[in-house]
Amino acid sequence: MSEAVAEPSYKAPPVDVDIARLAALFGELGLGVPTAVTELIGGGARSFRIDRNDGAPLVLKAFKDAFPYATGKEVYASQLLRDLDVPMTRFLASDESRTRMPFRYTIANYLPGRQVMTFKDEPDVDDLYRQMGTMLRKLHSVPVPGGYGAFGERGVVDPSATNSEYLNRRFAYSISRFRHFGGGEALAQRLEAIFAANADVIAESRGAVFAHDDFQPHNVLGERDAAGRLQLTGLLDYGNARASDTVCDLAKALFCSEHDAPGSTPYIRAGYGSIDHSDPEAALWIYTLVHRVTMWMWLRHTGFIGDGEHNPLIDDLTHMAEAGAYTA
Hints:
By secondary structure, the chain is of the alpha+beta class. It has helices at residues 19-29, 70-80, 126-139, 163-180, 185-197, 199-203, 246-260, 265-272, 280-302, 312-323, and strands at residues 34-39, 46-52, 58-63, 91-95, 104-109, 114-115, 149-150, 209-211, 220-224, 230-235, 242-244. The protein has two domains: 19-109, Phosphorylase Kinase, domain 1 (2-Layer Sandwich), CATH 3.30.200; 114-323, Aminoglycoside 3'-phosphotransferase, Chain: A, domain 2. Strand 9 and strand 10 form a beta hairpin. It is globular and about 60 Å long.
């Protein structure tokens, strides 16, 4: 994790980490003696850098009760990547019992660097975006057994046998919530028709792979090496991770990254390389439509978009509905 001033999180309330209780926990786990606790920026859980009297710092992540599979699913996701040559969060311990600490937690390695987002004004930040594409390609090289779906602590929860089945379920839920939160009936019907018309595009999938589902400049770290070159130093946050189609996850990464770092798309795609689909642009387009619907309804659900408040995501979806299909 990156050292930075903590920012408020709408998902998790403030957490008080008692140093004496933490010391007892670290002693039980053989992790040394904690000497300082510093809250870190970002994420839907509260994260803390734990300095120790002997050894590298560690990261304690405290989870809100509303997310019942949070700790187990992150550990499971990281285990899928254990043999991958990628600098990333690796877990040392997790506990759901609340007997050792008054919250559910994970303990993991501390990753150096800063969020890639903080380099956005650097003249050579494109190097980081290319490396992000390369890293994402590596993640997609990891097949996931058991079908398509979100991770739980022991694997895919309620898996779908095909990508079509999974996306149909996912989109049906998102568009129903889109309607519920006032996205507009006419627009919802048009988006449903477009989704249905792209069934063949969605059906073409090479199988379920590891999908981070939140791969963007806030969840990847970087720093300058001894020669002054920007290098990625870590991958964070498996809270959204799932078994999904490669193009679907790439579309989510490009959608989120372009929002936070405009102009990053061509560099991420260059680092990612060729897309394994007979019509990659059409696939990216329809998956982006799905992600925009899902993002809008989620932001309404969380209150980030208020009741009756206009958000540019509706403009994007309206333009997609007017176009009706991908056009070069």
